[in-house]
């Protein structure tokens, strides 16, 4: 006898491993879910996303795993003969080769600390990830650069899309309100630079998004929050063509 199809959770519900999300054969499992008999269960902690009949979970925890095309904020941890090794805030470090470090020619044997020294942070783009998890990055893409000064904070990598916002809308709102330059790496490392008092406001805003990213209506909540802490801030709607794309031109105030 076939079980009646029934959805037992709602969009953006927080679920735990083993929790039954739906019964019957009408629903299909996707990322973070699995089928057991005629039921679909959660395989991890996450937020429910219902796309018609497909159920998947948005992770709330877990380390970043490098993906080709991601823009990340990484730290120089070693200087090699042929480039630099970077901490990607994941189990897998990355290598920045000389040929990918600059549009200018770098001679072999040159003092590489003139370009990037130990402890420097860079906004860089992942150009390749092998099946053995060897990660290559490049500094020859739009939005990549050495990060000078400012402040580094770490956030939950799974909250990065909410911090950036649709078409960069959320991070743009924080930048407009505080006047800070902000780069949000897909690996959960955020660089920001501005007047110290405004840096503090930007950090608190980012932390608020990190804490409340699972709540609906977040944009309006953040608008109200920024207007409360910065009474002189006037929220301005942006036309889609003026909105910042995620991680590109991200050094604009």
Defining key terms:
Ribosomal Protein S8, Chain: A, domain 1, 5 helices, 253 residues, OB fold (Dihydrolipoamide Acetyltransferase, E2P), disordered C terminus, 5-stranded mixed barrel, 3 domains
What would you say this structure looks like, in words?
The structure is a single chain. By secondary structure, this protein is an alpha+beta fold. It folds into three domains: 6-59, RNA polymerase II/Efflux pump adaptor protein, barrel-sandwich hybrid domain (OB fold (Dihydrolipoamide Acetyltransferase, E2P), Beta Barrel), CATH 2.40.50; 71-147, OB fold (Dihydrolipoamide Acetyltransferase, E2P) (Beta Barrel); 151-242, Ribosomal Protein S8, Chain: A, domain 1, CATH 3.30.1370. The chain is 19% helix and 30% strand. Strand 10 (83-87) and strand 11 (94-97) form a beta hairpin. The longest helix has 17 residues, at 196-212.
Q: N- to C-terminal separation?
A: 61 Å
Return the CATH architecture of the largest domain. Answer: 2-Layer Sandwich
CATH class of the largest domain: Alpha Beta
In one word, what is the shape? flat
Quick structural overview:
The chain has 253 residues and is α+β, with helices and mostly antiparallel strands.
Q: What is the strand and helix layout of this fold?
A:
Elements lengths: L5 E2 L6 E2 L4 E4 L4 E2 L3 E4 L2 E4 L3 E6 L2 E6 L11 E9 L3 E5 L6 E4 H4 L19 E9 L5 E4 L6 E3 L3 E4 L5 H5 L4 H10 L2 E4 L4 E5 L2 H17 L5 H12 L24
Parallel strand pairs: 4-8, 11-13
Antiparallel strand pairs: 1-3, 2-7, 3-6, 5-6, 7-8, 9-10, 9-12, 10-11, 12-13, 12-14, 15-17, 16-17
Helix pairs in contact: 3-4, 3-5, 4-5
